[in-house]
Fold these 4 entries.
Entry 1:
Amino acid sequence: MEILEGELVVHLEDGRTVCVPLEWFPKLRDASAEALGNWRLVGRGVGIHWPALDEDLSVRGLLVPESVHQRQQSM
């Protein structure tokens, strides 16, 4: 996981790389470089946690944005 040019870049075990804008995550967007660098994988790799920011992101959420989840649930 890394932050590059305003994007969260996550490298998955299957070889895919997911890039999403930090704008989607205000806590991450507004965080210091130090806080962003303090992260760990949680749930056997299904999520990322930033303890200093009290922020958690799931890998699934990065692959399928919340707006898509909401549309699927309303169908």
Entry 2:
Amino acid sequence: MTVAHAWVGLMALQRLKSLRGKFDSYYGKQVDAFLRFFDKHKDAFVQGAWFPDSVISDNLAGGHTYKLGVPKNKSEEEKAVVIKNRTPGYLSCQTLIKDKSRLSEKLYNDYSYTLPDRCEALSHSIRDMILIQRKEPKGSDIMFNDDQITLYFLMLSHYIADAHVPPHCDSRDFYTPSTIHPDMESWWDKEILKYYAFDKERKVFDYDINGAVELKKDAKKLFETSFLCEALKILNSRAWSPKDKEILGEGNVKIYDYLKAVCFVSYLVSTEFIPLSMPASQYNKLKILEDRQYFDRLKQISSHIFADAIDSIALVWILTWDKYNKLQEDIAQKKKEIASENKKKKKTTP
């Protein structure tokens, strides 16, 4: 059972708390309500965030990936497109792309890999669950409860985090016989457990007096050398607000578009890390945790990957939480328009 998914989710809560003062009064209240909701459910993060792998297992059918690649034949060439979705400027993984002309590459996408669709669907489902919960009387047999809504938020965070994992977005196979993908994720888990207090029996993190995930007392100084510490520094150096003009990035209007842009950048990061020129016979034998050059590079890109994953989860969570309110506003406006139209019809009816 991985702890990385739970850790980035818990850090996303802290991220929202730290950004609270930079939001306007409307979104500040939304964050307060969201944090109050989650304060009662933090111990569910490890199990809940891992359900997409441990129970649903749609990672075996493409739900956790969005595979992009250079067209390999005429059929793929005909279907290849230039991806025009862009991540917002505050995310930093895009700074890892040295050759900016690569943003205009034509890439083939096998649409059986559905990660952005999964995130869009979960976001809508959460909105509907909250809507039903607030409208149904207490004790109703069909009402969703807080635990169910929490689970869906945690599942959503799992898929969002996966979009930031380079091998999840690269059509090359880095899992078998290559070990690049599992080595990367297992190292991330080990780093988190190395520095953070975690009860393996109860599968929960320890929290400090402020409710934040707590570092082990004997690991605080060494933590400064970790990529996790660097990820938090990157986060602290930037800010965003849900009301920013292009909060989802250029060309993006939905959660689907945003995650598509994230996956595109993750693909480019993957090809920077393992160049396209490297034959499979070479990367199949590559041990990224033993090769000093690749291990150093892994530490560098990991800090950006984790910082961006935390910000993405925080953003999508708060926008999803707000969807209920936006839907209510749209419904109210539509009702006014219908009422106004009916009045006009009555006046013109002989």
Entry 3:
Amino acid sequence: MIVLALGLYLVITFAIQTVHVIGLSMYPSLNDNDYLVANKLDYRLHPPQRGDIIIMRDPFDSSKDFIKRVIAMPGEELLIKDGHVYINGHLLNEPYLRSDEPWNNNGNWPPPGSVDAGKPRVIPPNQYFVMGDNRNASSDSRVFGPVARDRIEARAWLRIWPLPKMGTVDQVKPTLETSSSLPVAA
């Protein structure tokens, strides 16, 4: 019985994490009051990948967690212009975003007024640019900057509540257009 209890403790502590989604920053992929199981082991074996839905420590309060999607990886050039994401000069196609709601909040990054506004910025080593799927209602890297790898705790894996939506959560991945499509600066 002690061995079983110890085994369960180790799995719960080091392998999985339960997550209660609060808010709509990841809508429509995740909804307010969804319950998830996150995999803590994934990122001990390999780094986060573009499109992963991650659990990370809140950059303003380490006692809380955020849930976001990885958009840009270390070493990549990122530019967000007029609500379109460009990585290394290629448009990022994001099929999980709502097409019926225009993205009008923080639709440019680096932000207007910054020294490098309108120019791609390289994501620093060991950091990731993350955003919520509900771009108009998400506090994310557009606000707090790229996230250090050691602040990323787990990968969202399975929605367990509500029951009708039970299943894996990050099956739909973004893709980069193959042709260079970065808009020319005016």
Entry 4:
Amino acid sequence: MPGVYPSVMSDAIADKKRIDQAKADLEKAGVKYVLSCWIDILGSPKTKPVPISEFENLCVGKGPQFAVHSVATFPDLGPADPDQIPIPDLDALYVCPWNPDYAIVFADLFYKDAPYDVCPRMALKRTVQEAADAGYAFYAGLEPEFIVLRYDEGGQPVKGIDDDPLPGEGFRPRRQAFGYDVEYTLDSMPFLADVIEHLNTMGWGLKNVVCEGAYSQFEVDFDYTDVLAMADRFTLLRVLLKEVAKNHGMFVTFMPKPAQGDWRSGAHINWSVQSTAEPGGNLFKGKGGWSELAKHAVGGVLKHGVALTAVNCPTVNSYKGLVARARDFEGGTVTWAPTHMTYGVNNRSAMIRLPQARYAIENRAADMCLNPYLGLALTCAASLEGIQENLDPGPSLEKSLYDLTAEEREEFKVKPLPQNLDQAIKGFAADPLAKRVLGDTMHRLYTTHKQDEWDRFHETVTEWEKHEYLRFF
């Protein structure tokens, strides 16, 4: 995969013939406006829309420029510094299926003719290039889960698909979990049908949609692809889901655990590796089972498990879901969430699962708030380190981690996942691989941002504390 990472801006600009063909295709599809999107440090797309008549200028770096640092909480540059220039990647050009007047194209950021060092998409491209130079190509699939909500008459968020009286407004009987239920699936189909239609329009190979455990919680499963395209798809999916929900008078939250009784909304990362010399074969599949190369990849990921979790579970709220059991849980008490940094064959209580039905390693410690570019970049880099250094992940663990005694944890040398964002971000700050993958500037800014997030939460007096202590002592 030579030339994935452009070291200067001119290398990123497509040739005129391809630009002209892309514009003709957009005009044929009825597109009137193009949104060239760069990705911020948290994984959100940002843009300035341009009319289709400006498409050529956009593609050669003569379109809108951005003071990217002006919308950063902790900017790396100041008001006197030059702007950044987005160069569209025409391999990542999508007509918006919910409104074909618009097209979205993902772009790479340049600063003074060089890749901008706070561009997450470029960090992933750089990692993909390093893997290609070593003879490997990474592929990934994600399992996005999300909850659909609406506002009640008092302006409070409530479940979007729920036909029982609101809490406090009538009799609300005990119910089973929402997951897989036929009645609630049918109730959800007006919303889900639009999602299905749009994803099929884009040709992503939609497999199914699932009513998950929490009320109004869903999962969307579609085909895997190379890691860069998957990061783009995941980013576009979050936009698409929001737009579809609006058309149904609802909104989507990607918050991992909005309420105590909710199941966590995860975004499990499944990845595999191919040889660039012999594409098409899965190097994680060995004779009669998982290959030694796959085990080494697991070893690399577990070595950097804390730093990976800081990126893949990036919010204070993320860690409310990484627990074995939850009180007031809809549909039982067991969460099925990962709690420890180990691996097992089909073991859903472990951070790393080796599924029984596919040769793709699954990292279950990831949720919908992750920046997919940084998460996949660090996943690829940790896997590559494990492969190149023949790292041994130790024996797999085939028992529930929820019930391990302290003696068993010591015996199996099992380490818990970070218990909160503070623990995770301190591990991330000290991890040399994370620093290399993100680069010095972005690593420092991400650490600063997330440490500030934790500090602000830690200083906040919550309703739980007032309820627990106000009159207790």
